[in-house]
Amino acid sequence: MQTRLQIISVLVSGGLFLFVFELVRRKRLLERYALLWLFAAAVLLALSVWGDLLNRISTAVGVQYGPAALFAVALGFVVVLMLHFSLVISKLTDQNKILAQRVALLERRMTRAIGESDEDDEPAQSGSDLTASR
Q1: pLDDT tens-digit profile of 72-128?
Q2: Among positive and negative, which fits the CA dihedral 45, 46, 50, 52?
């Protein structure tokens, strides 16, 4: 890999690593999601620093240009992260649906309970009206 390209890839990978670390430090990114990003950044940083390892991997895979292999690895991480987040969103959607149904059932029960108590109050008031009129 060319030296200039290697320097740029090290800077970008290191920048990604530091950016994710800063997001975790400021509590803007949960640790469970940050681990995936930090792992991806560490692998990209390692492949950027050790150009020989990247060349071996690219030769083993059949890619003739080392930086293209680095790009393919980064793209693979992005696909894995997207799949992971899709799974998380699907689970949250199901949980949200169940929660909304439970809230609706509770509202219905509460409305019925209030309605029954109002009906219980009404005969008492009407009875007191009857005694007052006598």
Answers
A1: 888 999 999 999 999 999 999 999 999 999 999 999 999 999 988 777 666 555 444
A2: negative
Summarize the confidence of residues 6-16 as an average pLDDT. 91
Q: Establish how many alpha carbons lie within 13 A of residue 61's alpha carbon, considering only the half-sphere containing its beta carbon.
A: 16
CA atoms of 134 and 128, how far apart (whole Å): 10
Rounded Cα distance, 57 and 65, in Å: 11
Residue 98 dihedral angles phi and psi, to the nearest 5°: -65, -40
CB atoms within 10 A of CB 62: 7
Q: In the Cβ-directed half-sphere of 132, how many Cα atoms lie within 13 Å?
A: 6
Given a cut of 50, is residue 133 above it in pLDDT? no
109, 111, 114, 120 from 124: Cα distances, Å: 23, 20, 16, 7
What does pTM read for this prediction?
Answer: 0.65
